[in-house]
Amino acid sequence: MLNALTVDLEDWYHVCGTTDNAEHDKWPEYESRVTRNTERVLALLRRYNSRATFFVLGYIAEKEPALIRAIRAEGHEIAIHGYYHQRLFELTRAAFEDDIKRSIEVVSAITNEPVLGYRAPEWSIRTDTLWALDVLRKHGIMYDSSMVPLTRMGERSFKRFPHEIKTPYGDIWEFPLTTLRVFQENLPFTGGLPLRIAPYWYIVSKIKRINATMNQPGLVYVHPWEFDAEQPRIELTLSRRFMHYFNVRSTEPKFEGLLRQLKFAPVKEILGLGA
User: Fold this and answer.
1) Is 187 inside any structural domain?
2) Which of 246, 240, 247, 248 is nearest to 19 (CA)?
3) DSSP state of 92
4) What is the C-alpha separation between 48 and 101, in angstroms, rounded?
5) Structural domain boundaries, residue 76
6) Residue 251 counted as domain residue
7) What is the pTM of this model?
8) 275: in domain
9) Do residues 123 and 153 make contact, with C-beta atoms less than 8 angstroms apart?
């Protein structure tokens, strides 16, 4: 079975809930490492003939259009991740709509293609931000990948596998974060810190189990900065420092192993929204 492979295209300083992230006018002063780190990801994808969905920050697309064109030229899907990497619950509906329109305009001008997919920074579609789905569908987005069926981060009652949701502008697909049901709770393991913590054999075996016993695709996600153990450090709280930097050296070998043992495709293809 094909599983969804996704990359959140961010640079090392795009961390939610920090002063560095909030002061966008200071971002041009920071060293850009996104192109070199993304090339490491692309090289592995080429080696294993795999294609992915890249959820691109509008800010990066505007600063690095050649990078976006290079990603698209290799057959990967270009979707959006917002413009400034702001969590939805920090935005008004009007501000979110402006953010989405700006991101779509920047990305589609580079690719000359419609943008079909979106992922909210930090998976921040919650019960109090479900209005975002209406805004997305209004502007032509066909699928979202921002929900997590978790108690503290999203909402445990969210569905665990791809499904359609009705909006006033038509149905929109939701492809949530892949989780395992353990003692009445859902546990993530396929990206970010959970992927860096979980043993490799566990990740592979559980994705294969979801494919075989539930006939459902899994979703793997990584960030280019997770391939960069030498990245500059941001002043963070202890919990956020652990979440952002712990065991980053494990990302690349685990990612390569997943490419070797599983089959992947962009999200839009798995949902039947076009090759």
Assistant:
1) yes
2) 240
3) -
4) 34
5) 2-270
6) yes
7) 0.96
8) no
9) yes
